[in-house]
Amino acid sequence: MSTVTPAPGPLPVAPDAPVSGRSAPRRHASYADRPGWLVYGLLGAVILGGLFPLWWSFLIASHDSTILSREAFPIVPGGNFVKNAATVIDTVPFWRATWNSILVSTVVSASVVFFATLAGYAFAKLRFRGRGPLLVFVIATMAVPTQLGVVPLFQVMAKLGWTGELVAVIVPGLVTAFGVFWMTQYLSQAIPDELIEAARVDGCSMIRTFWHVGLVAARPAAAMLGLFTFVATWTNFFWPFIVLGPQDPTLPVALQQLQAAHFVDYSLVLAGALLATVPLLILFVVAGRHLVSGIMQGAVKQ
Amino acid sequence: MSTTSTLRPPTEHAEPPPKRIGFGGRLSRWDLRLSPYLYISPFFILFFVTGLFPLVYTGWVAVHDWDLIMGQGEFVGAKNFTDVLGGRDFWNALVNTFSIFVLSSVPQVLAAITIAALLDANLRAKTFWRMGVLLPYVVAPVAVALIFSNLFADKFGLINTLLGAVGIDPIGWHSQRLPSHVAIATMVNFRWTGYNALIFLAAMQAIPRDLYEQASVDGAGKVRQFFSVTVPLLRPTIIFIVITSTIGGLQIFDEVRLYDQFGRGGADGQWQTLTILLYEQGWTRSNFGRASAIAVLLFLIIGVIGLINYFITRLIATSEVKR
User: Distance between CA atoms of A153 and A172, rounded to whole angstroms?
Assistant: First the structure.
């Protein structure tokens, strides 16, 4: 299970594509060709459409569910959100699940970033036998849905006695083929060969060269890879659901328990859905522009 | 870049005794030769153990009688496959999976390409708009499923209420087959349209602007330019997005599992997908052999579709060379 959700991938575009969209001089920024209100209006509608489900669930989550069965349309938020949220926190192991999600996502992203940078640096900058075929193998595995190995993977975890434990979620996520490919792409352009040669001539060992040249140059791409991995791990459900027990879940698994326990009480269910979304919304507000430029960059690179 | 420290000669170079150079030289030769393999080995080791081995081993489990608790039973050959293929559930789930996949990918590609075209205009506050369309991407599928299950509720759902307001009878989003597929596809589209729009946007920005200038000299309007210049040049990107959404779409689980509280894909399997069926066979009925057979079949289906995609890509690539 190396990839949890479709990650941003490479795609073939014109070879003379400008890599950075922002500073490309292709738009002769004449203010005459600013778009009209229609374009802004349509985009505004798209964004409102994306916000509406969240707003709607807040409306429901802030009411008492008994009111909801009488009138379907709460137009203004009610005052019950805190009470509903408190019930959610009592019903499922919410804090435990939040802590687990933070732990799993942090460890997995740190590990993916580190091992992907290490392997990407080797593929991009070092010459060794079998480099070409091995790199092809990495790229080929990106198209393979490793999710489908769940049955034996579950057996492996059961043999190790890891079922119900967080380590069973962490270990299969520690590396991703996409991460290796992404760092290979980035580092092959980001580090001039001369820099590595200079470090070697000066007597740096291989690992010191990696540490002081590779890792430093990799920082922008590493940040984006970490961000994507974090979001993907946080939102992942299928594998944690299979391998984790009800006592020690991640947030999505805890949410699932909430629905199983309170299927009619939508106020509670949606309060839980919102509570689980808040951490990623905060992350999005803080780092959203990097996420955006990460997608844009990943898409243009060949 | 703070790499200057590496350019400073290390201190032990001050007085090199000749013998240590020989030893150090051999050490550094080994360092040079082995390091690359050392650096890539964590990926390959972990990938083999947690990705490739389980995938291959699935084939072994699939030809055995295998129980969740009892473990490996006797070799049964193709029996699990004939059981799966002979039953109604597999074909029902296959049709559902494809139906949901088509309902989610076709509108999604159309919407994403349109949104990308809007974002490609010379907007003020570009980053704001780009972030805005990406927002749904950070909402976990599980939360999306809970929210949309409420919006599409059969009795008091917002959608049915709105339909009622314009005089349309309530639709059985949780009881009828096609409506349930539409609702589930809507969740997938909600989460992924903005993401794909940004991928399209990146590809659009790579299109040389002279082409648009030429087209506009030839008298083509904005819409004509979009269909005659933008769309043809985006074909590789379109295929890429279709491939990734195929791999994801055929494995759809989260949205389906939480669409109702039972998580089995409807009372009559109206929206049961292949991964839901796989889970049910393996973990509810503790028949790992049959679950593995489903996984192998799903794997083959994804492989075949991948090959078809590949040949279409080749076809388009070569036809572009000819022009």
Answer: 9
Domain extent, residue A96, equals 37-69+79-299
What number of other Cβ atoms are within 10 A of residue B4's Cβ?
Answer: 8
CATH label of the domain that carries residue A212: 1.10.3720.10
The nearest CA of chain B is from the CA of A203 a distance in Å of 7
Between CA B242 and CA B255 the distance in angstroms is 19
Work out the pLDDT band at A136, boundaries 50, 70, 90: very high
C-alpha dihedral over A110, A112, A117, A123, to 10 degrees? Answer: 170
Answer yes or no: is A193 within a domain.
yes
Q: Does B151 sit within 8 Å of A53, measured CB to CB? A: yes
Total count of domains within chain A = 1
Q: Is residue A174 part of a domain?
A: yes
Is the model's pTM score more than 0.95? Answer: no
Over the Cα atoms of chain A, what is R_g? 23
**Cβ pair B205:A297 closer than 8 A:** no
Chain A residues in contact with B302 by the CB 8 A cut-off are 145
- Residue to mutate among A38, A129, A147, with most B CBs inside 10 A, is A147
Pick the residue of B30, B70, B146 with the most A CBs within 10 A to test the interface with A by mutation: B146
Among A61-65, A224-228, A279-283, B105-109, the minimum mean pLDDT is found in A61-65
Highest mean pLDDT: which of A105-114, B142-151, B215-224? A105-114
